[in-house]
Amino acid sequence: MEDCNALVKDNRQVARDTYLMTLACELSPFTPGQFLMLRLTGSCEPFLRRPLAILSCREGAVELLYKVKGRGTSLLAGKQKGEELSALGPLGKGFSDPRPDEEAVYIAGGTGLPPILAMAERIGRGHMIIGAYTKDDIPLWQRMQDIRGVEITAATEDGSMGMRGVATQALDDLLKKLQPPCVIYACGPAGMLKAAASLAKGFGARCEVSIEERMACGFGVCSACVVRTTTGNQRVCIQGPVFDAADIEWGQ
Amino acid sequence: MEDCNALVKDNRQVARDTYLMTLACELSPFTPGQFLMLRLTGSCEPFLRRPLAILSCREGAVELLYKVKGRGTSLLAGKQKGEELSALGPLGKGFSDPRPDEEAVYIAGGTGLPPILAMAERIGRGHMIIGAYTKDDIPLWQRMQDIRGVEITAATEDGSMGMRGVATQALDDLLKKLQPPCVIYACGPAGMLKAAASLAKGFGARCEVSIEERMACGFGVCSACVVRTTTGNQRVCIQGPVFDAADIEWGQ
Amino acid sequence: MDISTRLAPGLCLKNPILSASGTFAYGEEFSRMFDLSLLGGVVTKGISLLPKEGNPTPRVCETPCGMLNAIGLENIGIDAFIAEKLPFLCTFDTEVIVNFFGTDEDEYVQMAQRLNIDGVSAIEMNVSCPNIKKGGIEFGKDPKILNRLVAQVRKSTTKPLIVKLSPMVTNIGEMALAAQEGGADALTCSNTYPAMAIDENTWKPILGNITGGLSGPAIKPIALRIVWEVSRQAAIPVIASGGATSWRDVVQFLLAGASAVEIGSFSLRDPLCFGAIIQGLIRYMQNNGLESITEIIGRLKTA
Amino acid sequence: MDISTRLAPGLCLKNPILSASGTFAYGEEFSRMFDLSLLGGVVTKGISLLPKEGNPTPRVCETPCGMLNAIGLENIGIDAFIAEKLPFLCTFDTEVIVNFFGTDEDEYVQMAQRLNIDGVSAIEMNVSCPNIKKGGIEFGKDPKILNRLVAQVRKSTTKPLIVKLSPMVTNIGEMALAAQEGGADALTCSNTYPAMAIDENTWKPILGNITGGLSGPAIKPIALRIVWEVSRQAAIPVIASGGATSWRDVVQFLLAGASAVEIGSFSLRDPLCFGAIIQGLIRYMQNNGLESITEIIGRLKTA
Ligand SMILES: Cc1cc2nc3c(=O)[nH]c(=O)nc-3n(C[C@H](O)[C@H](O)[C@H](O)COP(=O)(O)OP(=O)(O)OC[C@H]3O[C@@H](n4cnc5c(N)ncnc54)[C@H](O)[C@@H]3O)c2cc1C
Ligand SMILES: Cc1cc2nc3c(=O)[nH]c(=O)nc-3n(C[C@H](O)[C@H](O)[C@H](O)COP(=O)(O)OP(=O)(O)OC[C@H]3O[C@@H](n4cnc5c(N)ncnc54)[C@H](O)[C@@H]3O)c2cc1C
Ligand SMILES: Cc1cc2nc3c(=O)[nH]c(=O)nc-3n(C[C@H](O)[C@H](O)[C@H](O)COP(=O)(O)O)c2cc1C
Ligand SMILES: Cc1cc2nc3c(=O)[nH]c(=O)nc-3n(C[C@H](O)[C@H](O)[C@H](O)COP(=O)(O)O)c2cc1C
Ligand code: FES
Ligand code: FES
Predict the structure, then answer these.
(1) Which pTM value belongs to this model?
(2) Per the domain annotation, does C77 fall within a domain?
(3) CA C121/CA C117 separation, integer angstroms
(4) Side-chain half-sphere of B110: how many Cα atoms within 13 Å?
(5) Chain C closest CA to B219's CA: distance in Å?
(6) Which of D61, D65, D129, D273 is catalytic?
(7) What's the pLDDT tens digit per position in B40-95?
(8) Shortest-distance ligand to the CA of residue A94
(9) Domain B103-247 has CATH 3.40.50.80
């Protein structure tokens, strides 16, 4: 992990409120699920860095895929080619590879696509489900189609693309067609992760979830980002963001 | 006075640490000595606006000439064509015109050039003295030469251009050659203004000084920017920045 | 939709947006930029019995997301205020709240008496002036002294009485209750935070007065907590003051328990912010189907 | 050039730059980024007798030029600290300052006794924890209680004793003197400012704990004033804490009277800032022909 200067090479809208940014930045090799803490300006405003998963990293070019939510991501969307950011990373613990005998299932919702897509691209086999409210929320559809060996299913709540319904419904359908052993990689809203974890348990599948929590440091020193696990609080930024779903205490 | 959106049309270095910025901005007509309060960003950092004198304003194009001193002016120097600022103004009270029988003398030092140059360009007759430490600190030399009817003298402390010495020495020399009635327009460091005021008094000339003081609002409501005058505190931003030198209590 | 808000018997603002003392002078300059009638009320610069010259310059300084000021309560004095400024303010359809201070109890009382006149909608008592002589600073620091001072002022006026608290105390709830029991109708939470700035090149303080008061967005999180804390303890309305810049901040202060919000430092930066803030608040209420701001005030969901 | 600084008999830092409690954990993570030996000292996360789980999330939130935290003093407890963390910290050529707290006087005393061991260079006593049960919060608010607590802890340890004050008090000078007279060797000025953030969409507080502590550049002007005020009243060294981000801020704190400076929140944002700050300080001293930082400490020119 280092603090690198990162030059914006490209920053373009790829879906509703969603941007793909390419940075020129020398990172150490990463595992999907790992993330960067991006510092957006040289001044102290905004003060905290923003966590974003690494979508890809090749030959000094790092791709990030992000949704504009609040102030930080709006600022990011306004960055133009040649502007400079600072990127701390790769941070955290990424997904583990599937065992050779395991069928791999990837499921993403909300801002959870980048680490899942990164994992699907890395492993190159299995089934991927992407959930969204509507068609316009789904970025990089062609790119996902192009991953050889991975079958892509979209689930949209308004039925505008793929099946009508939520991603975990699609997961349920898919699991009914698969044979164990199976590993599920999930990233997205807490509700989705919880549902995926429960489906995985029912199916007897291993399930790894990448969890989002508010962070201050991103490298383990402030204890902001804890999640309850069966062995007590764990820091999402350094002991995660990827956890075995069976270790998480899901709550309500 | 209004709060106008101002688009940067041009922003170029014209002397050591000194930039000329042209803004596309619809201002009401201005009097030399009047200034703008520039808001540099949409975020609250930096919080306060920065006061800069108006150098010119023609057909929706406003020129500002500024020295990079601290954070705000550094930010300003980094602005590129197409970026947006907000400009409040024209603010304050500018210089009064010379009476037809008055010989006009303009004297500028430090960041005091813009209002003085604006005045010389407006009046188009008289003598102008510009003081600086060295040649490289003097911007827009050719433009000053081009003001028909105004004779330009440079005074540099290191003697690299014009006479060696300070601007008020040049003023002293000049006044010795002139006949009253005479009006002196001065803007620059406090020491220079005080010296100019005293020379003016000795010579029996009217003297108007444009004063710099730290400001918060720039439009008269906060009482940050007071200067002591014979009639008590006056707010530089609204009762000045131009004052009759005879009304100022110069202190030490 | 009803965005009016009640601060005291006989003091109802048509909307919850106020100017703040010391950032609006006596209204004249702002009146050249917009119609003051759009405001819920105008709070004037702090007035004293005699005119005051204030502190040496520099009097302001920029800080991260905020500013320091050490104006030193420069003001034209009560006589000139009543003769020259009040009549002008009364020409607008807005409440005129006169901020004032004294150097001792007697001066506070005299000020309250002098301000007990037509045209003054309410008085805001500043008990947190760091720049006044012996005794002054204690008014806002010791609950017993504050209680007694407020009670004396209360007896001297029939106007709604607002007490503006200092934030830099160990127990602000206690101060609030002291003011309330002394007879305050409402509380302003709160004044600036004693602070300073130093120039590492000259080794000198930046302000002529050495220290000054911190204001602006930097302190908003503290102001929000103080409003929340005080409004749960006091029975009288709270006016928020500290770092508000937008309708979002205003909604947050209302949720925390404020009945009105003063916009201070930010209006030095963006003098036209008042109209935008009021419009933003109205739009927010429309979008959320809210009929009255009483549906927002103090409704923070903490469970 | 001598940039070492003395905080107590037997506690001399090789340079005035410290980490701050709660933003450096127990040093392991930072040690993977730079050699901790470059620091004047490491201040650990606050430790208690028993491990503590802390507050519900969200535990942090961004504010204008700052942040709120309500971690709730989550820590691994003294046993695990001594067994697992202290030996690692002792491998570096830097002072190890252990921050600690208790829920009552007895716990503070027990903690001081347990920390009276090799490897601990000094202890920093946190008396401003808003999240501990009855009695806790009063330690840092009432000078008599503070004085007594410090005196008890003083008797229980031979280590240099640093007391970390709460900034949100009416009279910080009084608190400083109470700690000094209780036997403190040095004072840290100061902890975070109770504050809050509200989401105007959900009508809920942003932090799980409702309120939290404000830190970062936003509060630096207040911290600077507190350091200046306390260092002129107290006879013992002051450690500055609050919003420092650069060697410039460090020089300002030294001028105000601090003998050392903790870098907290800013190191969350820029973990590599420590080296740059120390280098900047050295360059500043070189450029200004200064031989020793004692030539800077408290040398603010106010006349
Ligand atoms: C490990 C990790 C990886 C992530 N990867 C991605 C990604 O690849 N693409 C993407 O679009 N989003 C991702 N997110 C979510 C992303 O960090 C937030 O959407 C973003 O920080 C919001 O910042 P903002 O300034 O726009 O919002 P604001 O609401 O203005 O942010 C205020 C504060 O809250 C924090 N915050 C707000 N929402 C979240 C959230 N959902 N998770 C964590 N912190 C939040 C911000 O970081 C900031 O500190 C990831 C989050 C985590 C924890
Ligand atoms: C009426 C008026 C007209 C001016 N016109 C010009 C001009 O045309 N060209 C030019 O180069 N400069 C001009 N100045 C000076 C210019 O405003 C300052 O150099 C500038 O504000 C410095 O900002 P900074 O952020 O770079 O410095 P910083 O030191 O970072 O500023 C910190 C704060 O101090 C204030 N400040 C610092 N120096 C001065 C100063 N000399 N005068 C007033 N405030 C100051 C800033 O406005 C800001 O609020 C003028 C000043 C005034 C009062
Ligand atoms: C320049 C300036 C002058 C002020 N003068 C006064 C004053 O005369 N009386 C008073 O009670 N408060 C005064 N204040 C405090 C403000 O009214 C307000 O309470 C404080 O600045 C916090 O709010 P803000 O962050 O919105 O500015 C002054 C503030 C500033 C910035
Ligand atoms: C995330 C976080 C955790 C903190 N934990 C502690 C703590 O355990 N004990 C303590 O005394 N101070 C704690 N503090 C306060 C800091 O040590 C420091 O005094 C304060 O943040 C002000 O300095 P800064 O602005 O440099 O951060 C914590 C601060 C933060 C931001
Ligand atoms: S964000 Fe600081 S420990 Fe995870
Ligand atoms: S800067 Fe506010 S009155 Fe002049």
Answers:
(1) 0.97
(2) yes
(3) 9
(4) 14
(5) 7
(6) D129
(7) 988 999 999 999 999 999 989 999 999 999 999 999 999 999 999 999 999 999 99
(8) 1
(9) yes
